[in-house]
Amino acid sequence: KAEFLDEMELNMPWRELVSLVAAAALAKQAGRVPFRLEAVPPLHFMQHWFGLNDLAMKEALFDIPLSRDFAGLRQHNVLPDLFTILRIKHLLKAYQLVEQILSIVNATLSATRNSTGLGKCTREPEMSQTKKGDLRAST
Description:
globular
């Protein structure tokens, strides 16, 4: 998990995602801003990447330092409770931010993959395909 989160920390367009969330939170103008806006995109993605429901996300933040670090909450004494995580989810849904976030991330990761050559699939010449039961290629 640590290696994966480190990779995502480097490649995700966090500033752009936080700006998108901030604009929606300010447009809402009712009630308080949902927690720390910088934590919203990482919380959203951790829930999806690791298949965490709202309660499991809350528990991960309390129990797993790696989760707090990734969300930028290591130095903060207040962690989001279940209600806050639910309000974040409602904010993203109400302003159709999930689709916009996904669009931004897909564009960014596609550009990163293409610029680093990760999008190309090459096969090592020594590797060969074998038929089931054909042991010749494995010798």
